[in-house]
């Protein structure tokens, strides 16, 4: 399995790892966890928001990686862009927790550019993208 595909797994785990510190340090009633999470404030609330944003960005990232793989995009570049996306998401989470909105938005944009780059690689394709025959 390629590094880029491993980064899809990392992106699957990222929302859960992001919210864990907020859940552990607050009193969340598993009977109604969403109600309790709405009452969080400060860094815990910001981690919840980052957690939700990770779910929002995942489909585009996963699709971009999978399509790049299917189209035979240059693997080295796909791996770099996928790794940069995950690093950007980690930095995004840190900026969100630290309440740095401008930095967070810039980092989000970097991650988005990585997704666009993966789609561009898919459009270029490679030997696997050439028609058979």
UniProtKB/TrEMBL annotation:
Subcellular location: Membrane
Claim: Membrane is one of the keywords in the record: yes
Cellular component aspect of the GO annotation: membrane
Transmembrane segments: 80-98, 110-130
Main location: membrane
Cell membrane keyword on record: no
Alphabetical keyword list: Membrane, Transmembrane, Transmembrane helix
InterPro entries noted in UniProt: MAPEG-like_dom_sf, Membr-assoc_MAPEG
Cross-referenced Pfam families: MAPEG
SUPFAM superfamilies hit by this protein: MAPEG domain-like
Protein's UniProt name: MAPEG family protein
